[in-house]
Amino acid sequence: MAKKGLVYLMNEKPKRNEDFIIRKIYRFVPEFTNVITTIIELEIYPNNICVLSFYEHNKGTDKTKYKLRSNIGAGHIKAIFKACLDAYYELNKDYALIFSAANDIGKIEEDNSRYSAYLLFLSYYFNNYEDYDRQGSIALNTFMLYHRSFQYKEEADLFYKEFEERVKQNIYNVDDECDKA
What we know:
Elements: E1 5-12, E2 22-29, E3 38-45, E4 49-56, H1 74-89, E5 96-100, H2 113-125, E6 132-137, E7 142-147, H3 153-172
Parallel strand pairs: 4-5
Antiparallel strand pairs: 1-2, 2-3, 3-4, 5-7, 6-7
């Protein structure tokens, strides 16, 4: 039986056409059930930028895994979100945090329910949320936040603009290799 809670698995180096420095991969199994295992990925980029994503282990393909929903309750979802934040906080540095709330397969929605849930969760559980500058796109379901004292603000803003462009291209290009930005 897999150890429950958040477990660091490994660092993954970039493959061709990937521009992150390292991808930190975690496994999460909630304490109250072992039905669903979630994989959490933190892609670390230059200038202390972190892109967060997660998906259900062994569900979907590389192209669809971020878009598939699991049939789980609100408590389980909250536990996954908390595990994502715990993984982010393990970085022990000041990082800009970026995520994209993927649309369901076959749907393109502005302000999808995932995006709304992430924003609500962050507003309640992100440490010192009010001390962070935030920007996002409801149309693209992307969001970034960094501390007001973050030393790489300009670089993070530029990265986020490019990130939004990749998300936009992925939404409208069904032939992409992956549904993640």
